[in-house]
Specification:
The chain is of the alpha/beta class. It has 15 helices and twelve strands.
Amino acid sequence: MLVVNAGSSSLKLSLLGSGEEPLAAEELAAPRAVVDDAELRTALDSGSLGDADAVGHRIVHGGSRFRSAVVVDENVRRTLGELVDLAPLHQPKSLAALDAVSAALPGVPAVACFDTAFHATLSDAAATYALPAGWNSRWQVRRYGFHGLSHAWIARQAPAVLGLPPGGPRIVSCHLGAGASLCAIAGGRSVDTTMGFTPLEGLVMATRSGSVDPGLVLWLLEKGDVSEDEMGYALEHESGLLGLSGTAAMQDVLARAAAGDARARLARDVYLHRLRAGIGSMAAALGGVDVLAFTGGVGENNAEIRADTDGGLAFLGVAVDPASNASGSGDFEISAHGAAARTVVIRAREDLEIASQVRSLLGS
């Protein structure tokens, strides 16, 4: 199984065996909406990457139509292209990778796996914006949610690590990386999430603002002499931790905060305030929480953020064991003894989730 993940700055290729064991991997530069065909061809020809029996592609947006993985044919590819307007920063890169790999491996089945699909189970109450009804039907305006492949992996892996029945626990999944989102999971399904129509909604992120009063955005556009292009770029690339502290890297923010930098302390505190509030909201959607799971670059690697997050959630029965939190690796539990809700750290493995969806669809 060849898994193709086109990110913001790289194109990751990984070949997995029948037992999901890693066989080969390559990481290529991925310029905006363009894949270097020669470089890709070299990567596929070297080693065993070109030996794939099937290819699974991470596609950011499936719109309202694609609610699960799908084999890519001409009609599917055409429809995916029509969804570019819903994710103009991400979809072109995914589709460029899809086209390039399909051209390099003709005849090998290609399967699209969607970051939005896991959230297709959101209820109308959770997915609907309180906007004019005509807008919803005309422009497919709804809360789609993102990071679904990561949250889907948490839904399966967290119970396995904790020895709980699959689909049993109520899980709040915290995907904390450069992009960040939460997901409320019950019965193995998404019931709420923090990202919405775009990945801008929700938590404070590395360079994204997270949720902002739409009235403020309108005021800045009308009164602040800010153009639409400037606004879009600022919210995506100049806000979040970077806007508050001057650096987008959480480790740098924490180091500067510890050294007394006021901007960094504020960035840390705003980030944690929004994170705890979001977790509380997800727990409310679930009627309580059994498992709190951390994943993503920050969630997996930053014990300080995990401790400070859990330290504000005692009312949910969450508590962390400092020794476990500081020394664990891989997939591991960090719950304090006797905590009512268990806390676990899970490595982000979108590749394994994609592979599982492809095998399920193709029956292999």
